[in-house]
Structure formats: C-alpha cells, structure tokens
Design goal:
about 220 residues, transmembrane helix, about 75% helix, membrane, elongated, transmembrane, mainly alpha
Length: about 220
C-alpha cells in the first residue's frame, strides 16, 4: 500500500470507529425515578380490580357487583383491563432502559438516539391519552365509583385512594418523557463532539503525512 492509501486509511479508521461505537450518556437519576413513579402510580387501581376479580367484595354494595356481573363475565373484564393497564404502565421503563447493555457494541449512536426519540414520542402520546382518560373518569367519578350514593366508609375511601393515585401516572410519565428526549439530545451532541474531534485529529495526521511527502 502506498503512502496515500495509508493516510486515507488512517483518516477513515477513527471516523469509522466513532461512527460504529455508541456514545454513552447516562440517564439522569430523576428520570429513572419518574419512570418508576409512573409505574407505581398505576398499581393501586390494578390491585383493587384484581382483588374484586378474585372474589373479594372489598365492601362494595351487592347491587353494584350484581350490575357489573361480578363474579362472572365482569371478573374477566377486570382481569383483562388490569393486564392491559399493567402492560401500559410497564412501558414507562422503555424510556429509561439502557439498551446498550443488550445490543452489540458496533450499533451506532444514531440508532440509540432514534430509539429514544421514538420512545419519547410514544411517551408524549401516552401521557396525553392518559390525561384525557383519567380526566374523564374524574369528571364522571359518580358513575365510576362503586360506592356512589352510599355513605363513605373506610372501604370507599380506600377505593377512592387507589384510583386517585392514577392522577399522578401521566404526570410522572410526562416528566420521564421529557428527560428521555433531553438525554437523546445530549447523546447526539456528545457523539457529534467526539466525531468532530476525531475528524480534526485524523485530518491533522493526514496533513502531516502530506507535508512529509512534499518535503521529500
């Protein structure tokens, strides 16, 4: 290989390495805690429904359980709804999951950034959808509340508390989404700085070798 080929190879090698090697930018702790908060906020209402589906009355009026066909087809509805809600809540971890731990090292940074952006867009859509759904439930709580029209006792307040926690779900999810998108921007900027530094370094090597050939 001639000197021109070697110089070109030395110029391209570091650029190839920085292109293929992912740039690591740790996710801030507060973003991780927000993702956990979103998941935890959805759990109380899930547990409440599962207890009802398992045959526990939880102090609910017999007339309400009969109208909801619990136990019966209504119990299956509660199980399916709880499973869907649990799956949706677990999606918050996609915002903070370190995918680099499970993928080859040669996966480029752009792929991780694109994945984070997609997760962020999905997180925004999910937070907005949850805000609408939970907001409608709050407005029509008298129609959702199993204890509607009854004197509130400890069971009624427990039910209210379980569903009240879901109000924090979209709030935590929205915060985690913002953190995820900010991390994606930081990762892209860090990758760009590293790429530019490698480009300057490689260009310097190429210029030095060209100058040496000229002097000879």
């Amino acid at each position: 290989m001639n000197e021109s080929g070697r110089a070109s190879g030395q110029l391209q090698k570091p650029l190839l390495e920085v292109t293929l090697k992912a740039t690591v930018v740790p996710m801030p702790k507060w973003v991780v805690w927000c993702a956990w908060g979103a998941f935890a906020a959805a759990l109380p209402s899930i547990v409440w429904r599962l207890m009802l589906a398992a045959g526990n009355s939880l102090g609910t009026p017999a007339s309400w359980r009969s109208a909801q066909d619990i136990p019966g087809a209504g119990a299956w509805y509660l199980l399916v709804l709880s499973a869907l809600q649990l799956a949706a809540a677990a999606c918050s971890f996609a915002l903070v999951l370190d995918i680099q731990r499970f993928t080859p090292k040669w996966v480029p940074t752009r792929a991780y950034v694109a994945g984070q952006v997609i997760a962020g867009i999905a997180g925004i859509a999910g937070a907005l959808a949850l805000t609408v759904i939970i907001g409608m439930s709050v407005v029509a709580w008298d129609k959702v509340d199993p204890f509607s029209g009854q004197a509130y006792d400890l069971w009624a307040w427990l039910c209210f508390s379980c569903y009240l926690s879901t109000v924090f779900w979209p709030l935590f999810l929205g915060a985690a989404t913002v953190g995820c998108l900010r991390n994606a921007c930081r990762r892209r900027k860090a990758w760009r700085r590293r790429y530019d530094n490698q480009l300057i370094s490689a260009t310097g090597i190429h210029c030095e070798m060209s100058a040496g050939r000229t002097q000879r």
